[in-house]
């Protein structure tokens, strides 16, 4: 019998071959994922405009990300409990309905506080959708778990690349339009899931609300969750704060993050499996986290160079694409628990813990200087690297190696 370590290269090698041969329900959910992640990127180019037009500080505007992530993380705990009772399809539909409604309400807001509140409601729907979508794709897709995760990450990358471009175009007319754009796209995703997601049964047994917390007793899953928590300090500093020091129009920010998203999508699908097969999951993640930390350091040092910031943002997409695919794949294999439970436990830790990062970036910028958020993001990624290295022994079974 082959060990998990020797099976893993084959899983990654076969992933690209099987990724396109998927049934209709998988494509329906993947399309909805594209739309959902497009919604996150749509908001990015309009953050400076919201700050200026609603007379809000950077920290206040960054609460759009904080409330979204905090509620998303807390709600992740309940997704398995809900989906095992009403079924994956209705969980996805309710999630999409929440996002559609609250994104529309955000566009109608008259203050940053109202938008922050509606983004929290958006987070409820986001949690129900994301955790369930990943488990549906992994359980319904043909091929290995790695191919399913790559398909999910491809949808994430595609959505996050097109989102800023569309957000920049709409945001150049009004900061409200991207929120309305999200509502329309979510409605389309709702229709796609309603019409095409069929044949996905309810799980055989009902999950407990305590299941995600119990899953975190497994040190492998807890290690990956804590790694992602501190990695998110870098990720969301880049995504939520970087538009401010760029000093660009909504169009310019949109084009910059479009390039970032394109690299994220390409590397998550084509580069991550190759690197994992060649060097192993953990060794690849060590290298990628080191490069991402260096990228953030350069952004801090080059804070007054628009060209340097643009290049670093776009290049970071390559690092994030690889890391996202590998850590998500590792989570699916980390602990002897059901995949939806593993996803909920991991997402709870990374989202709730990482929620402070965008708000902290805004505070540090105003109190210390515009470069400080990038330095703190760099430190956060280095802490993530340290946690991953210290937990290497409990992650041996997900550490694919070609040797």
TrEMBL record:
One of its GO terms (molecular function) is transmembrane transporter activity. The chain crosses the membrane at residues 24-43, 63-83, 90-108, 120-138, 150-171, 177-197, 218-241, 253-272, 284-301, 307-332, 344-362, 374-395. It comes from Alicyclobacillus sacchari. It is found in: Cell membrane. InterPro entries: MFS (IPR011701), MFS_dom (IPR020846), MFS_trans_sf (IPR036259), Tet-R_TetA/multi-R_MdtG-like (IPR001958), YfmO-like (IPR053200). This is Putative MFS family arabinose efflux permease. The keyword Transmembrane applies. Gene3D superfamilies: MFS general substrate transporter like domains. One of its GO terms (cellular component) is plasma membrane.
């Amino acid at each position: 019998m082959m060990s998990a370590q020797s099976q893993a290269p084959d899983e990654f090698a076969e992933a690209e071959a099987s990724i396109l041969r998927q049934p209709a329900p998988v494509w329906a959910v993947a399309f909805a994922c594209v739309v959902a992640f497009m919604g996150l990127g749509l908001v990015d180019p309009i953050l400076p405009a919201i700050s200026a037009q609603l007379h809000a500080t950077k920290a206040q505007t960054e609460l759009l990300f904080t409330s979204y992530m905090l509620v998303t993380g807390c709600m992740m705990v309940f997704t398995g409990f809900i989906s095992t009772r009403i079924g994956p399809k209705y969980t996805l539909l309710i999630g999409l309905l929440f996002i559609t409604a609250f994104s529309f309400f955000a566009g109608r807001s008259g203050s940053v506080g109202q938008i922050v509140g509606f983004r929290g409601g958006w987070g409820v729907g986001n949690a129900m959708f994301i955790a369930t979508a990943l488990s549906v794709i992994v359980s319904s897709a043909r091929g290995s778990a790695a191919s399913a995760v790559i398909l999910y990450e491809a949808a994430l990358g595609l959505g996050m690349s097109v989102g800023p471009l569309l957000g920049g175009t709409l945001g150049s007319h009004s900061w409200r339009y991207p929120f309305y754009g999200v509502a329309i796209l979510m409605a389309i995703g709702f229709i796609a899931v309603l019409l095409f997601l069929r044949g996905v049964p309810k799980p055989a047994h009902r999950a407990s609300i305590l299941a995600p917390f119990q899953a975190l007793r497994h040190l492998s899953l807890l290690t990956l969750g804590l790694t992602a928590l501190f990695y998110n300090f870098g990720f969301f500093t880049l995504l939520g704060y970087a538009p401010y020091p760029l000093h660009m129009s909504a169009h310019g920010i949109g084009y910059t993050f479009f390039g970032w998203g394109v690299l994220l999508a390409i590397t998550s699908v084509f580069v991550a499996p190759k690197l994992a097969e060649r060097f192993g999951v953990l060794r690849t993640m060590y290298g990628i986290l080191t490069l991402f930390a260096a990228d953030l350091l350069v952004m801090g040092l080059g804070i007054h160079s628009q060209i340097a910031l643009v290049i670093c943002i776009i290049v970071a997409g390559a690092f994030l694409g690889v890391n996202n695919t590998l850590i998500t794949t590792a989570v699916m294999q980390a602990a002897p628990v059901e995949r939806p439970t593993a996803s909920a436990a991991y997402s709870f830790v990374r989202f709730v813990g990482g929620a402070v990062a965008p708000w902290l970036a805004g505070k540090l910028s105003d109190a210390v200087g515009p470069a400080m958020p990038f330095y703190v993001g760099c430190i956060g990624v280095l802490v993530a690297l340290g946690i991953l290295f210290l937990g290497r022994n409990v992650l041996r079974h997900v550490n694919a190696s070609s040797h």
